[in-house]
Structures are given as C-alpha cells and as structure tokens.
TrEMBL record:
Top-level taxon: Eukaryota
Annotated protein name in UniProt: Isocitrate dehydrogenase NAD-dependent subunit 2
UniProt source species: Phycomyces blakesleeanus (strain ATCC 8743b / DSM 1359 / FGSC 10004 / NBRC 33097 / NRRL 1555)
Annotated gene: PbIdh2c
SUPFAM superfamilies: Isocitrate/Isopropylmalate dehydrogenase-like (SSF53659)
Family to which this protein belongs: Belongs to the isocitrate and isopropylmalate dehydrogenases family.
GO cellular component: mitochondrion
Length: 376
C-alpha cells in the first residue's frame, strides 16, 4: 500500500528520504523531535533529510495563518512523507481559524486515517485484554467538511445551527478497499508468527460501523458501498469475513470485548470517536499512533492532542509519535525498520520500568526515548 511514494523524485541530489516535520502546538514540539531521534538511530536504516515546517494554532496567533501555503507547497513538492505533532484547536469559534491538520488531509488527499490499537501486557497492566485492532477512518468527508450555518427560526426568533454531512460513493469505496486490503496484509504478517503469539486467531475480518437504521441515506450509502467492495471482488476477498456494528453498539461492545474486532472501518466522525475511545483500552492516548494515508503520500500523527497542561515539562509520552513514525516507514515500504521500532517500543512497555506519568510512571520524555534507543 502506498508503495509508489518512494518513486517521487525532486530536484535534489540527495538519495535520502525527505520527511517534513510539523511539530505544531504544545507537546508536539517535544514528541516529534523524539520520533526523529529514533528514526535517525535505526540500525542500517535509510538516510533521512528532515524539513522543519510551520502550522498550528500558535502559529495562527502569531501570523494570522494556521497553515502557511509554503508548508503545503513544501510537502507536495519536496517531501516523501511527513510527521505531524499536535494542534491546539480551540473549542470555541475563532474568526479566521480552521484546523491545519484537517486542511492538510484535504490538500494532500490523505483519505484514510489508520489507527492500530495493540495491547502490550506488563507487570503494571496484568489484566489488560489481548487486542490487535486496526481502526480505519474515512478522512475527507462526513461532518468534517465544516459546512455549517446559523439561521433564525421564523417562529421563535431563536438561532438554529445546521451542519451539512457529506458521504460519497467514491470516498466510501476507496476507504472500503483499503480496509479489506489491510485485512489481507495483516493476515500475512500474522502467519509469520507462532499461533500462540497471535492475538487474533481467526480469519481476517472487516467490521463496518454505521448508523443506517437512523441515517438511512448517508450512512446507508456508506454501508452499501463498503459491502459492495467485498461482494464485487469475491475471489480477492473470499478469505475476509465481513460484519457490521451500529456505532452506539460498537462503542459498548468495544469496551466489553475489544478482542472481537480485527479491522474496523467507519465514516470520519464515528472513526474519530471510536479510535480515541479505544486508546483507553491500552492505557493512554500517549501510546496510540496513526497515519494519514493517501495514494502517494503518508503523514504520521500521534492520536493525542497538544496537552497544554504538561507542555514544556518534559514528561510527554513520546511512544505514540515513535509508533507513528514506524507507521510512516511501514506505509513507505520499509517494513523491517518499522517492525524494529514497534518491537523496541513494545519492549519498553512490557518492561514497565520506564513509563511517563500518563501510564503511571515517573519517567521523562527523554528517559523513554533513551529506553527505546537501547532496545533498538
């Protein structure tokens, strides 16, 4: 998947992989440099060139622009991939501001947000359930098209807010195809492990999340289109099971029996909520990575926010960012190096002696990075 990324060529004599670094706000400025250190330390790893780029709410406050056009142009014309830190989007409306990460997904056509949620048992989490779930979220549509308006109710004279929701057959079809393809890819990787080491021991499965019992038009189209991906490719996907969950029952069942899910595919808003909630199953948002994936570009992004309450204290958890850098490499075809990063992180989590406060430890960001480097 996304194997054509490294075929992009630029006006440079360097043979290095050029990665755009966008720390943005808050702890993004701490965890992205941490991920960079691990990339640079990979044994026999590829050569990297890192390009530092601006974006974020703090940049908006200084300049009036949350996403400079120069950042977009550099990513499109000079970079093979990117790492994005975190953004401090305010909960209230700020005139002229819109989220730079949402805009980047649209500018670069990063139509899939890929979020693995994997458990690692340790002495500090002896009761953690074994799960290996991949949540694939459509990244360009749904309510996040940000088409909102306020009108006045002629009867009451009070304000009424509306939000348009977009679900297209085109976007639903390609996110469905990615879900089924990644189910097959995950199965191939599992088959390389002894059965005892596999959390998921069944045929690969794609679970379609929707609410078409209420939203019969929009969610109905999403459901029908994703189902059609498998039904129209019976030979390719014959080994992949398919089921469905209404979004409310999905949340309930995910917390009760998360081990029941393999690959989950959902529209933008549902996928956002489900994947953030799933982080609670593995201890913290600080350990859950994601990758924004398109056909010719990948941008790694830790799931956590900017955490202004701990920004600058040196205690931010860098694991999500490091894993996101691993996802970046994985989707660029450097699977062995990505696995080395995952294994190093898992070893640190399993040992449980070096953990940041969000996981119940007392270690610093740098302590965790040093422990990961040691296990590399």
């Amino acid at each position: 998947m996304a194997s054509n990324i490294l075929r992009r060529t630029f006006a440079t004599s360097s043979s290095a992989i050029r990665i755009g670094l966008i720390p943005a706000d808050g702890i993004g400025r701490e965890v992205i440099p941490a991920a960079q250190r691990v990339l640079e330390a990979l044994p026999n790893g590829p050569k990297f060139d890192f390009v530092h780029l601006d974006a974020g709410f703090e940049h908006f406050q200084k300049t009036g622009t949350a996403l400079p056009q120069s950042t977009v142009d550099t990513l499109k014309n000079e970079c093979h991939g990117a790492l994005f830190g975190a953004v401090s989007s305010p909960s209230h409306k700020v005139a002229g501001y819109s989220s730079p990460i949402v805009a980047l997904r649209k500018h670069l056509d990063l139509y899939a947000n890929v979020r693995p949620v994997i458990s690692v048992k340790s002495a500090s989490t002896p009761n953690q359930k074994e799960l290996d779930m991949l949540i694939i979220r459509e990244n360009t549509e749904c309510l996040y098209i940000k088409s909102e308006r306020i009108e006045q109710d002629p009867k009451t004279g009070l304000k009424v807010a509306y939000a348009d929701r977009k679900i297209s057959e085109y976007a639903s079809k390609r996110i469905g195809a990615m879900a089924f393809n990644m189910a097959l890819t995950r199965q191939k990787l599992r088959e390389q492990k002894p059965l005892a080491q596999r959390f998921w021991k069944h045929a690969p499965r794609v679970t379609i999340v929707h609410k078409s019992n209420v939203m019969s038009v929009t969610d109905g189209l999403f459901r029908e289109t994703v189902r059609a991906v498998k039904e129209s490719n019976p030979e390719l996907y014959s080994g992949v099971d398919m089921d469905e969950q209404l979004v409310d029952s999905m949340v309930y069942r995910m917390f009760r029996e998360p081990e029941a899910f393999d690959v989950v595919v959902a529209p933008n808003l549902y996928g956002d909520i489900i994947s953030d909630g799933a982080a609670a199953l593995v201890g913290s948002l600080g350990v859950v990575p994601s990758a924004n994936v398109g056909d010719s570009f990948v941008m790694g992004e830790p799931v956590h926010g900017s955490a202004p309450d701990i920004a600058g204290k040196g205690i931010a958890n860098p694991i999500a960012a490091i894993r996101s850098a691993g996802l970046l490499l994985e989707h660029m075809g450097h699977t062995a190096h990505a696995l080395a990063m995952y294994d190093a992180v898992n070893a640190v989590l399993a040992d449980a002696s070096v953990l940041t406060p969000d996981l119940g430890g007392k270690s610093s960001t740098n302590d965790v990075v040093e422990a990961v480097l040691k296990h590399l």
